Amino acid sequence: MNDRLARITLMRVAEPGDAVMGGIVAAHGPEAAVERISRGRPDPELTRWFANLHGSGSPGPQDTCEVEDGPHGIGSRDVREIGSGVYGAGSRDVREAGSGVYGAGSRGAREAGSGVYGAGSRGAREAGSGVYGAGSRDVREIGDGAYSAGSRDVREAGRGVCDTCRARSGADGASGARAGMSGARGARSGVEDVSDDRAGANGVHGECSSVRGFCSRREDVSGAEAGGGGEMSGVRGARSDAADAYGVSSRSRDDHVAAKFARMLASWAARFETADPARDLAEGERCGARLVIPGDSEWPTQLDDLGDRRPYALWLHGEADLRFSCLRSVAVVGSRAATPYGTHVATEFGAGLSERGWTVVSGGAYGIDGAVHRGALACEAPTVAVLACGTDVTYPSAHHDLFAAVRSQGLLVSESPMGVRPTRPRFLIRNRLIAALSRGSLVIEAAVRSGALNTAGHAVSLNRVLAVVPGPVTSETSAGCHRLIRQGKAVCVTSPEEMIELVGVMGDDLAPEQRGPVFPHDLLNSETRRVLEAMPIRIGVGPATIAVTAGVDMETVLSCLGGLAAAGYVERVPKGWRLRSGGPSGG
């Protein structure tokens, strides 16, 4: 099977715009895609590709710690200047903390005053007298006291007991210890150590009543008693349960993705049994259609912007060349239930664009589509109709004569094989072709739920120009157009020239600036205009009165009156001068 026949097969096997099949074709080629589908069973390589495409992996459970009387979420970068109380910090630094209980899962706990400190970072340095808990890799140069470490290394510790736990110091320091390491499990950001400092009469008592750590990777849970009666009532870790639950969930997701791909492959294989590419090719040629595939001279390369949703091939029926016609093209779409206003505007745009050498691309439907095609055909210019069915199927049936005219002057385009009937999803899917073939899209009359807005969405996603023609604010069929303008997604245009300015060559296809009508009054100089404005309508007045009213001198009035009389603006009467009835309009 060659590349052409493989693409015809794919047109029968997969739905138009199927991104999964498009991805397989892009990755392995159409012939390899057909060969794998013909096996009828999941391919391990394709299954892994499909799982990666749908992102079967997901991050582990979130870190949560519950300390004493409330849960604390740990994940900020800095906690500074905290007074007395209970603190949970999963950040990089905890600085200048006063007396109290501190839990640090960060890189350092520095310059802490007297009290009890828990550090799950890489180092706890230069701490004064007291009790220290370190869950990091190194604890160095710690003076007199008791030390608890859940890390890999504790060096140069004075005298005391090392463990990951809590410690309690008596009146004269840290005397005696009982060390019990209940477990050391890794933590993502470090080791959680939360303790409670209670100061007695002659010493420092540390007690941590309850610490629960939910960490994604590691966990350090241990207990020890040091000095005059310290105890840890409970440290619980729930990492294993969370990991087991996550593992089961991950496996179930992978199984679900694999089952979904297997069902998709089974549906393709079922269609493959009935596909006959040689027959489809012969049927298309018998109907007068031709097949173009990527790489052909007539293939419009702008369709490559669709990525994995690019059509496998296109059936063309008509006299025009698709690639050449779409070099300068505008897509015009709109409501099927068009008003007389919308039909008139669409016809004018179709004719105006065609007169200026631009091809009109639309969907051949009732309403705006049909009107714009007729406008283009009236100027004997090519027009392209993108169908949601085979090119041999006339839908709607009332457009039989219109499609015949399009074939003689333009093109019928379809990504469906011969004989395929239209469905509602196919109308929406083919809209991406209308948007991709043209330089820009124009929406004329679209309700809020109009399918034309689907084409507008494709145009925006493809970085194409989007324009709309406004309608009456009381018209529901223009509500979608007005919303696109309000959202800033579309540009308001009122003439074909303005649309060409948006999609044409910068500086060459500028629309003419609209100006109002020019009246004879506009051609007069300022002094003559002032004299004319000072003239009475019915009764005549003398030049002196006109000069006072106009605010000019007598000489100027006399010179202006002669010119105005010659031009037919004023006339002389027995009592002086007045405006001439039926004279040139003053605007």
Provide a brief overview of the structure.
The protein has 587 residues and is α/β, with parallel strands linked by helices. Helix content is 34%, strand content 19%.
Set down the secondary structure blueprint.
Layout: H1 3-13, H2 19-28, H3 30-39, H4 44-53, E1 64-67, E2 70-72, E3 78-80, E4 86-89, E5 93-95, E6 101-104, E7 108-110, E8 116-119, E9 130-134, E10 145-149, E11 177-184, E12 196-199, E13 204-207, E14 211-214, E15 220-226, E16 235-237, H5 239-274, H6 277-287, E17 290-292, E18 314-318, H7 322-325, E19 329-334, H8 340-355, E20 359-362, H9 368-378, E21 383-386, H10 400-409, E22 411-414, H11 424-437, E23 440-444, H12 452-461, E24 465-469, H13 479-486, E25 491-492, H14 496-503, H15 526-533, H16 543-550, H17 554-567, E26 570-573, E27 576-579
